[in-house]
Amino acid sequence: MDILLQEDSIISPLGFSTSENIKAMKAGNSGLQFHENLRFQNGGFYAGIIEAALLADNFSIIGDATKFTKLEQMMLLATQSVLNNNQLDLSETALIISSTKGNIDLFGNPQNFSKDRAKLNSLAKIIQEFFGFKLKPIIVSNACISGGLAVAISKRFIQAGKFNNAIVVAGDLVSDFVTSGFQSFQALSATPCKPFSKNRDGISLGEAAAAILVSNNKREGDSVSLIGDASTNDANHISAPSRTGEGLYKSIQQALKESKLSASEMDYLSAHGTATIFNDEMEAVAFNRAALAHVPVNSFKGFYGHTLGASALLETILTKHSLLNNELYPSLNFEELGVSKPLNIIQKIEKKELKTALKTASGFGGCNLAMILKKSFNG
Amino acid sequence: MDKARNQFITNSIRIKNEEIFLKRESILSFDSKIDLSQFLKDSYKKLALRYPKYHKMDSLCKLGILGSSVLLRSQHFNADTALVFSNASSSHDVDMKHVKSMESIVSPAVFVYTLPNIVLGEISIKHKLQSENVFFIEDKFNADLLVDYSETLLNSGKASSVVCGWIELKNDQYDVLLCLVSNNGEIPFTKENLEELYRFENE
């Protein structure tokens, strides 16, 4: 059974649709900008933050922006855009929500909302009721692999016959909660993040919502399927990546096995690439163990920052469009390779016939994810 | 053939109201006045856990380590035993500690626990499981989701056995049910049986 990645949508500082995002990326624009913040000695930090007024303006087409939090507006807009292009029966379409911290800042500062609104259950209910999904939403909160894991979960349920269509929606904010935490870790970069580069010095945070329709319904023309997926825990450390890249390596092996493809058949690798010293090094080790050193690879974090629970879905959508457009997008802000193993970093936009791609992600708690995407033509 | 039909609830542990039950049998109980941190400390001692890292963890992880250690004691399981967990309050117990600290000095040792799946990482380390992990958020215990998803992992060969369940912590009240699901045992792995194990302590 083919599991197709169909209509999708991205709400980010780079635009309010997937096509706007890709256009901005191709123009070399980054969502990362300096934002004033008193927590930082130098007066602020680089992050990818969506302008609230612009978002509310866009949201007003589908609802009253004063009644929804910023994150809700983002996730509702993303979902609406996917639903607009489909005649889906919402009585049998699954809704899978993914977020790490949801509306967490409402805990400390509820604004005009109830504190309950900070809960992921409330976030899911708001999205469900706004559109009238009948099935109970499934909520995945599994650190920074959440958005991709939610796609893998939708595939597994479709294959098991639980439903035929799932809307996967992921979103996270640059919250004060998360910013203060990563700052305490000294994990934030003083400049826009530089994945895999020698002088990388940490992550940039970003915010985004993304949505995609995962379906077993065939369509005419080019389509991209998810043909293998696996997640493996490192069982090593809850916040430091494994030095051997064990969990990521195993995830890649398992996903390849399911896809019946080999590493040598991968045309493109969309890495996690957070730009911390240890994460990028771990990925380089795992990719080399998996014989992927030659495969063109990028990290999208230079464009968006780390969008946490949204990142793996956002980047899966971009990977899908890479395949459809036969375009490799550069790993923005890359300078000189700064990991101990060779990698084939994409440095400029390149037109190339692409059929297969590997998307990976890793996160706190030692979790790792690998997904194999394949383009096919249905005439 | 549907492999899940040959799956059983091999073992189960319930932690609630100052009491720990293994396969419905009470193995440890305390006075109802004992608070959460004392309960976690005393249970560790009484169960002879010998895992010093335990003391550094947040309460949700302590509950997970307590539960999984008793659950898996003298059980056969492979490194690909998946973890399928759920709760309603995510990591909000420790989230509140982080929120309070944001007014003064934030501690990375607290922040690192502010994700619900960290308990899966701690359990993976303790029991050397390099496996599929997922943390679902639900408004209440949902046997359907746990059984349905565990079955997809077992039937597709992504896991040879599963530890699944509910691990809720809110306002110092805890409510834990963890089950080892494998091809060993007598209680068939069904929604009804899982639901019954969850309801049991409430009777």
CATH homologous superfamily label of chain B: Thiolase/Chalcone synthase
Q: Which CATH architecture of the largest domain in chain A would you pick?
A: 3-Layer(aba) Sandwich
Number of strand elements of chain B: 8
The helix/strand order of chain A is: EHEEHHEHEHEHEEEHEHEHHEEEEE
Structural domain tally of chain B: 1
Note poorly predicted spans of chain A: none
Protein name (chain B): 3-oxoacyl-ACP synthase
Description:
The complex is a heterodimer of chains A (379) and B (203). Chain A is of the alpha/beta class and 379 residues long. Chain A has helices at 18-26, 52-59, 70-84, 120-131, 146-159, 176-184, 246-259, 277-289, 301-304, 311-325; strands at 4-11, 32-36, 44-48, 94-98, 138-140, 165-172, 205-206, 208-215, 221-231, 268-270, 296-298, 327-328, 344-345, 350-351, 356-363, 367-378. Chain A has two domains: 4-215, 3-Layer(aba) Sandwich (Peroxisomal Thiolase, Chain A, domain 1); 221-378, 3-Layer(aba) Sandwich (Peroxisomal Thiolase, Chain A, domain 1), CATH 3.40.47.10. Chain A is 30% helix and 23% strand. Chain A has an eleven-stranded mixed β-sheet with strand order 5-4-6-8-1-9-16-15-10-11-13, with helices on both faces. In chain A, α2 (52-59) packs across α3 and α3 (70-84) packs parallel to α4 (120-131). The model of chain A has no long low-confidence stretch (mean pLDDT 97). Chain B has one domain (3-200): Thiolase/Chalcone synthase (Peroxisomal Thiolase, Chain A, domain 1, 3-Layer(aba) Sandwich), CATH 3.40.47.10. Helix content of chain B is 35%, strand content 25%. Chain B contains seven helices and eight strands; from the N terminus they run βββααβαααβαβββα. Chain B has helices spanning 36-46, 59-72, 92-101, 108-111, 118-127, 143-155, 191-200; strands at residues 8-16, 19-22, 25-29, 82-87, 133-137, 162-170, 173-182, 187-188. In chain B, α2 packs parallel to α5. The longest helix of chain B is centred in the first third of the chain and has 14 residues, at 59-72. Chain B starts with 7 loop residues before the first strand and ends with a helix. Classes of the chains: A alpha/beta (379), B alpha+beta (203). Chains A and B meet through α4, β5, α5, α6 and α7 of A and α3, α5, β5 and α6 of B.
